[in-house]
Amino acid sequence: MRKTNTRTGFTLIELLVVMAIISILLALLIPAVQQARESARRTQCRNRIRQLALATQLYQENHSFYPPGACVDVNVTTTDNNGSWGVHGRVLPYIEMGNVYEGIDLAVGWDRQEPIDGLRIATLICPSDVKAYEMRDPGDDKMKLWATTYGFNYGTWFVFDPASEKGSDGIFFPNAEIVPTDIKDGLSNTLMISEVKAWTPYLRNLSPAAPAPSAVPNGASDVEALFSSLTQFKNTGHTEWPDGRVHHTGFTTTLPPNSLVHYTDGSTEYDEVDYNSWQEGKNGAAGRPTYAAITSRSWHAGVVMTALMDGSVRPFSENLSQDIWRALSTRNGNEIVETGY
To answer: pLDDT tens across 288-333, in order?
Structure first.
């Protein structure tokens, strides 16, 4: 009886066809999975900003005014860099961190207060910002810190003048005691919080001979032209969540969201760089005025997530005009902003 050969395997061509089909399916599936994950992270980011906005409103209800960006005693001449807590530290009781708040002293510089050593507060971090999960260790027995990716509205450009103690046209600046009735443009037309990127490079502190740049830059190239007059380059912006200075706890609307600002430090090129003319409060009344271009930036494609002073949370496009973005940051500029966000 003749035996019939029965083929039990795949031919090479069949195997290649199956592999090709699987590769095509994976190519279609992976972006969909990544998109779903980013959508979930974006929703989580939105919820965290909402929590922070609610905490700020609760602070105002309990203190009658919104939290100041910092508390600066201009009569004290000091070169201390970490003398005042920012908004993030002042709203701790309202983001379920009351136990930490009870262990700190807001009247004392934050950098040697042990309750915040290595403390990572999820509410302060956008889950899409991968660099925010890099802890900063400043050494010298100072507290190790995690970043924040949510900045508070310090206005358009001018931040603080220690000589006159005048503050910005925004909401949160040194020694501010802004109340809701001060916001003439309306709570729904004024920014409270916007995203910033952890570990943003920045330059600070004018050289003694350089004049204060009071004119508001018209664009990124104008900001870049100011870098040569500054004395310090740092690549640690927004890595000190307790710090009240604008390059750590705030943002300004000098430039539209996600603007590229270039700077070369020796052999390294950076394309998202911030500017602070003088650390607020440094050297007391003898210090210089602070002007800052601290740009709102996000890892969410094409937008930055924001909260307005009424507590509403929404994305703003990076293509929003510079004029509208600046109008949204002022508290009494007499602008009623109409935008599709």
So the answer is: 999 999 999 999 999 999 999 999 999 999 999 999 999 999 998 7
Q: What's the confidence (pLDDT) of residue 148? A: 95
For the chain, domain boundaries = 40-329
- DSSP category for residue 95: G
User: Which is it for the CA torsion 109, 192, 304, 158, positive or negative?
Assistant: negative
Instruction: Give the integer Cα–Cα distance in Å for 200 and 297.
Output: 9
In a 3-state reduction of DSSP, which class is residue 179?
coil
Residue type, 261: V
Rounded to an integer, the average pLDDT of 231-242 is 95
Q: Which residue has the tokens 């090709």?
A: 20
Output phi, psi for 71, to 5 deg.
-115, 110
Token pair listed for 131:
């660099």
Question: How far, CA to CA in Å, does 29 sit from each of 25, 32, 145, 221, 244?
Answer: 6, 5, 38, 41, 44
Strand partners for 167: 160
Q: By the 8 A CB rule, do 234 and 275 touch?
A: no
- Which two three-digit tokens encode residue 40? 């979930």
pLDDT at 82: 59
The pLDDT value recorded for residue 74 is 81
Q: Report the distance separating Cα 177 and Cα 68, nearest Å.
A: 6
- pLDDT > 70: what percent of the chain? 90
In terms of Cα–Cα distance, which of 191, 160, 164 is closest to 176? 160
Query: What's the token pair of residue 160?
Result: 């603080």
Give the pLDDT of residue 168. 96
CB 297 within 8 A of CB 196: yes
